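Q: Could you fold this chain for me?
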Amino acid sequence: MYGEFLPGALTPSQSGVSPDLGWGIGGNEDGFLNDTFFVRFSATLENYPSPGIFLVPLTFGPGLRLIKSDPGDFYVIGTIGIAPVFFPQGGELLPLYGGGIGYSFSRFFAEARVNVFPQSHFLGGSLIEFPLTIGMHL
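A: Sure. Below is the predicted structure, expressed as structure tokens.
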């Protein structure tokens, strides 16, 4: 379970759309294959109130624990998936890919990622966002 701060997003200049601050909530499940490698499944609800963009990314991807220590672990994660995206003018289903770094304590974790939603019809190009995540292991 986690919350996201979305400090704006990059869009093509010809789109005329410039997402301001946004937020997100979601959940993920990590399945460890061994002490180093894991696979993550994730579902998130994201909202950019201005200009009214709502996204529902559904992703999976590999993870690699770089440092296992006490009190926590440092890791990298890669993701691919799909996202229904809703604009004031309508909606579309976009592919997405991304990656990031994270640190996990015994009960909490923090991540910094980049997500790319390529070839948006409504934007005339890609949407690139930079979610900052704080979460709790349940």
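A (continued): The first strand starts at residue 2 and ends at 7.
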